[in-house]
Amino acid sequence: MKVALVHDWLTGMRGGERCLEALCELFPDAPIYTLFYVKGSVSDTIERHPIIPSFLNRIPFAKSRYRYLLPFFPSAIQRLEIQQYDLVVSSSHCVAKGIRVPRETCHISYVHTPMRYIWDGFDTYFGNAGFWNVGRLGMALFRARLQQWDMESNAHVSRFIANSHNVAERITRQYGRPAYVVYPPVDWQGHQVSRCHEGFFLMVTAFAPYKKVDLAIAAANELEIRLKIIGQGQDEKRLKRMAGPTVEFLGWQPDHRVRDFYSRCLAVLFPGEEDFGIVPLEAMATGKPVIAYGKGGALETIVPLNPLPKLGENHLEWGAQTRESHSGLTGVFHYEQSVQAIIEAIQLFKQHLTEFDPDAIRDHVEPFDRSHFKEQVQQVIMSAYHEFRRVPLC
After folding, report:
1. Helix, strand or coil, per DSSP, at residue 59
2. Nearest Cα to 111, choosing from 380, 382, 391, 387?
3. CB within 8 Å of 365: residues ≥ 6 apart
4. Which of 347, 273, 336, 272 minimizes the C-alpha distance to 305?
5. In sequence order, what are the residues at sequence separation of 6 or more whose Cβ sits closer than 8 angstroms to the Cβ of residue 195?
6. CA dist., res. 210 & res. 273, Å (int)
7. 328 with 361: CB under 8 angstroms?
8. Nearest to 210 by CA among 258, 277, 261
9. Are strands 51-53 and 227-230 parallel, antiparallel or unpaired?
């Protein structure tokens, strides 16, 4: 069986690239098609595969300023020559699912999110200062066309896999298609439980508007608590200007250093609404609690000290919020994205610090381990592939 992989862009190792890395291990001979590729920016496991970037990769500034080229992404992904494969697996949070495949090719798309820039995340991305504010008018002109393309490109997808129930619901709502759910992989075995801390709070994040790093910084400033931030991104200058003396920016850090900071922190702050969110699980894999916004993917991974009452057919039904089914608490939620809500969550956490058991927190993450992801996603992919082959072509 000839297999090809498709990924939006290869410019760094984030949650989506961890999923791609596991797919590379499942399909070790598969080439990878992508919009942009920065050599040395992803793991050796990924770079051992043949990597075929789009024509946009030849633009001089594209590898560092690729977001400026968003309106050209659909045509670039569709111009990639992808022929004579039995199976194509795309890993998509933007346009990778729009790759054109022959009718006799099975295309399975693992979706991290429907393209948030043009759907429910438009105002968050293009409503802030900097480039996104300057580009808002231009993007508003392209938005309807990109939405239309996003819908039409679904015709090339044989089966959707979502990274969470949260995303599966959005796929059904926006695309009118069902999706299997396979949670992304976490290197649970690569983390060790830590039962001590050095008193600081930690964030591991990209500096994108929807991450709400500014709210966490403002809360740290007001409480005068130590906050260390690992990450980089387009919002970095603004965030550094607003940071007080107890906030420290650490830039990008390699995996072993990130694990070290997890092991030494008191808790991890996670104020953004994520489609799923790998960082909380990595933190919990070291036994550290997470103070998070109680919406989106966090509802499926964190067992909070302060759960909301069940509200019927709601995200709460899926999540880790059913405390009686787990061995212990793993975090605290704030249910508003505001400085005051984060302050109150931090204060509540400190009041109940002794109720968080590092070993129980780590045990909670074991079902998300990389080995389980590979087993589950392989089963779904092969089941969908055989079902596709049984259906006669018209």
Report:
1. coil
2. 380
3. 186, 188, 281, 284, 285
4. 347
5. 287, 358, 359
6. 7
7. yes
8. 277
9. unpaired
- Count of CB atoms within 10 A of residue 390's CB? 7
Contact by Cβ (8 Å): 125, 132: yes
Residues 6+ apart with CB under 8 A from 46: 10, 17, 20, 21, 24, 32
* Cα end-to-end span (Å), the chain: 22
Torsion sign, CA atoms 325, 170, 177, 86:
negative
User: What is the three-class DSSP state of 247?
Assistant: strand
- Count CA atoms within 13 Å of residue 92 on its CB side: 32
Distances (CA, A) of 321 to 92, 191, 330: 28, 24, 10
Q: Are 358 and 288 in contact (CB under 8 A)?
A: yes
**Cα separation, 209 vs 206, whole angstroms:** 9
Cβ atoms of residues 267 and 201 within 8 Å: yes
Decide: 288 and 262 in contact? Cβ < 8 Å.
Answer: yes
The residue type at 278: I
Q: What is the DSSP letter of 42?
A: S
Digit-by-digit pLDDT tens for the chain (394 residues) are 999 999 999 998 888 999 999 999 999 999 999 999 999 999 999 999 999 999 999 998 877 777 778 889 999 999 998 989 999 999 999 999 999 999 999 999 999 999 877 777 555 655 554 444 545 556 667 788 888 999 999 999 999 999 999 999 999 999 999 999 999 999 999 999 999 999 999 999 999 888 999 999 999 999 999 999 999 888 899 999 999 999 999 999 988 999 999 999 999 999 999 989 999 999 999 999 999 999 999 999 999 999 986 644 444 444 444 434 445 899 999 999 999 999 999 999 999 999 999 999 999 999 999 999 999 999 999 999 999 988 554 4
Give the tokens for residue 8.
Answer: 């939006």
Q: Rounded distance, CA 94 to CA 154, Å?
A: 12
Rounded Cα distance, 288 and 125, in Å: 30
CA atoms within 13 A of residue 150's CA, in its CB half-sphere: 24
